[in-house]
Design goal:
Layout (H helix, E strand, L loop, with lengths): L1 H4 L5 H8 L3 H7 L3 H26 L4 H15 L1 H11 L8 H21 L8 H17 L4 H12 L6
Length: 164
């Protein structure tokens, strides 16, 4: 529903769409904010699962794969992004609590893999990747340009430089 209607989704809409009573919805989501946060956590759980799968595949450039995946997720569900922004009162979103820590750990593994394969410089950090995710989010949210091009240009800046 967030994909279709963005921040306009209300709990009665969810109940109708799910074919359940309002009481059932309120038992699971006592407020609309709780519903948005649950949808947000679900989004980040999916991104986390992707990052862990990517780490297990031994890809030579997993940071690039991760950034492309995040961009695709954001692009495919701008409605949820708008709902998160409206709830939190700030552009973009970031995972909270345990999910944030787990995602940081997973991204750290991807960075280390990319370092070993020579895909990124030795000084690339999790904070750098989060900064890039924020830039992708802003680009998708505002429609200010092609986010894939942003990723490609940025990754060029993260590549090791030849000595000399």
């Amino acid at each position: 529903m967030f994909t279709e209607r963005g921040e306009e989704v209300q709990l009665p809409d969810v109940a109708r769409s799910a074919g359940v009573g309002m009481g059932t919805v309120y038992r699971h989501f006592p407020t609309r904010d709780a519903l948005v946060e649950a949808a947000t956590e679900d989004r980040f759980a999916g991104i986390l699962a992707f990052a862990r799968t990517l780490a297990g595949e031994g890809d030579d450039d997993p940071v690039l794969g991760y950034l492309h995946h995040v961009g695709e997720v954001l692009e495919s569900d701008r409605g949820l992004s708008a709902a998160i922004e409206a709830l939190r009162g700030t552009p973009g979103s970031a995972p909270l609590g345990r999910t944030r820590a787990e995602l940081e750990e997973a991204v750290s593994v991807l960075i280390e893999q990319a370092r070993r394969s020579g895909a990124v410089r030795p000084d690339v950090t999790v904070a750098d990747v989060h900064l890039l995710v924020g830039a992708i989010s802003a680009t998708v949210r505002t429609g200010s340009g092609p986010w894939r091009r942003l990723v490609d240009l940025t990754m060029d800046g993260l590549r090791p430089r030849p000595a000399g």
